[in-house]
Each structure stands twice: as structure tokens, then as C-alpha cells.
Amino acid sequence: MPEVSPIGTSDSSLALTIDVTERCNLACAYCYKGPAGSKGVDIPSVLRTMEVLWPVITEHGGLTVAFMGGEPLIALDDALRLASELSRRCSNKGLSFSWSMTSNLTLLTPERATRVLKAGGAFHCSVDGCPVSHDRNRPYAGGRGSSSTVMQHVDILRERGALRGARMTVTPATVGQMFDGVRHLQSLGFTTIAAFPAFDRQTWSSDLLLVVQEQTRLIGEARLTQFASLSRLHPIDSYARLLLHPPAGDGYHCGACHSFLGIDIHGRIFPCHRFTGQSNWEGYELRTLDGEGPGSWSQLRALFNTREVPERCHRCPALGACRGGCWAENLSATGTLSEPAEISCAYNLALLRGIEASGLRAESFAAAGSCNFCNPCIMCDICLICNGCNNCDICDRCNEGGWRGLNDGGCAVPAGSV
Description:
9-stranded mixed sheet; disordered C terminus; alpha/beta; 418 residues; TIM Barrel
């Protein structure tokens, strides 16, 4: 097998998402996978895929897994079986292992939470802010809002000291409650919050972009006061850092196809979780680690890790944070990996202007480092996947240094090893 070190660095775990089911009990307005399917994970196929990846996992010194779907609690037994087997194999090889699951929390029970936590897992929660926003974005398949159930189940995790990261998706219908959403999630006890927009199946008008700017200004003004207890606030923190230290515009957007891969229910490998379950994107399946032809890791790395952003991006003040946009979002909107949609560019500019207007350029954000998944750090979902590190206190120690929300390179340490 050829040398695999260019895939990532040897001092950070390989990050994987594994889809354990297509099924989901919600009908989210922005779901990029569309209507839920009915198939579950093929465990033998996934384990065969892991055998192929062991040289890469060994090169990285460990493995971090986030189980996704669908809703992974529907397939909890399968997720626990995979977690147990992968943990055993990593332990036998002297490698670190941690895992989490990304859940909508509607199916959480005390018994299920205990099973996950006892097995060393953690939860990354999809909660779209305050109840009115959550119900608009994330109803049950029949149309009824899911917020009341979710808020009750948040208590289950908080009582067990297991409440960490929340992903809050912002849509045109809920952007006016972005500040209230962050405040609500903080009040529930979340310590890491990501507030990212949805563009698939959504219509953003110029008036709404002014709302984005105003809501971001409010959040920025509160970041070092009302929201100071948050260890990370995505993507506000990265844009605040950008205003202090604008990085060069070259490089890649995130760790996809670098130190981050997605595995679908059939055991097939893709650049990230956004590519799994997409029948029209099967041309991006990673079929072999060898060679340089179609479907090889070398070919996909060339597409994803050496992308040149369009000329128009070079003049954009937000380039240092957006890095030319999410590859999957670009592909969905424009049919190419490199060309971002105009609306995503406009959203990012509104975000930047809001942060600048807030005055959030405090030196408390000047010490920003980055993990080894993304270089430079853009405060992406990779950090939330790292919430599997139950015993790691690096982020807490960084915060004791007098600044909030940005890690100091600590995420390069294999999760759970501290």
C-alpha cells in the first residue's frame, strides 16, 4: 500500500462519520438528504471498510467516530455494536478511540442515554435554538413541532453532565431569532454552539441578509459578556479572529478528504458526511487508497485539498473564514466544488459586517490556534465531532488563559487521551 501520510498529520485522530440508518422521525425543512429512507447499516460491510482504513488510522494514532443518520437513536444497538468493535480493535493496536452520535434527541430516554455514556460515547445535539424556531425547522413527519420533547430530553443529558455541543441551523424562517436561539441554548446548559445557515431548499432575500447582519451584531456584542461562558461559538469566533488576523486565501475549506471522511450505510467511503446518501454524487466515492485514477484517494485529495477558489473570491474580505465555501454546498448550488453560490457569499459578508459592527475585535481572540483537521481553523463541525472526548480538558485549560471560544491547538491531541 502506498504511503498515506499526506492524508493528514500523525498527531491527530482520523475523524469519521458513520451513517447507521437512513430512517428519521423528523421532517426538517432544510434536510439536505431529502425524505428519509428505510434502510439500516450493513455492519459487516462497514467493518470491512474499516480494515481497509486501518493503515490510515494507525498513521494518525487513533480514531474519532460520529454516528449519524437519519436519526442514530433509531439504530442505537447497531451504533453500540460498531462502537464496541472499533474500540476493541483500536485498543488491541494501541490506538486511541472516541465516539459520539449526532441526534435530534426526540427518542432519547434515560436508559438510552446511560447505555451511550456507559459505552464511552457522547452526544452532539441538533437543536435549532428557541422553541418557536425549532418547531418551524424541525417538525415531526406529521407536522407537529418537536421542541417540547427535545427540551425535556436535554434535561436527561444535563443531569448526567453530558450536555456539550449543539448545532443550531438558521433558515430564512428563523434568522430573526438567531440571538434568542443562542441565548436559549446557553440557558439550557450547552457549552459549544454552532449557528450555521441552511441553503438547500431555502430562499434568502436581501432583506433577510440585513437581519443576518443585525442578529450577528447582537451576538457579537454579547460574546465576551453574556455569552462568555460558551467555550466555542461557531462561526462568530472565527470571523472575530479574521478581523484581527486576516489569513491568506489559499488552502482548503475543511478537513474533508484530509483527516475527515464519511461512511454510508453500505460501508462506502466519501469525502464527508454531506456526500453520503446522495445518489447523484456517487462519483465522489473513495474506492481505493492506491493509485491515482478515478475513485482513488490521490484523485479526490487533488480535488478537495488543492482547490483554487474563483478569482472573485480573492477580493472578498470574508475569504479567510469561508475559504471558498463548503464543497458540498457549492456542488449542490453551482454544480462545481470550487464555485460558491452567490447567496452563501452574501450571507458570509453579512456575518462579517455584523461582527465588525459589534466591535468584537478584542485581543481576547488574538491567540487563536487551530486543530490539525482544518488549516487554518474555520470553527467547523469537526470541532463538534470532537465532543466525543469525554475526559479531555484541553479546551477548558485554554479558556483559563483569559480568552473564550477558540482552541489553542489542543484538538490535535487524540480525543479522550488527556
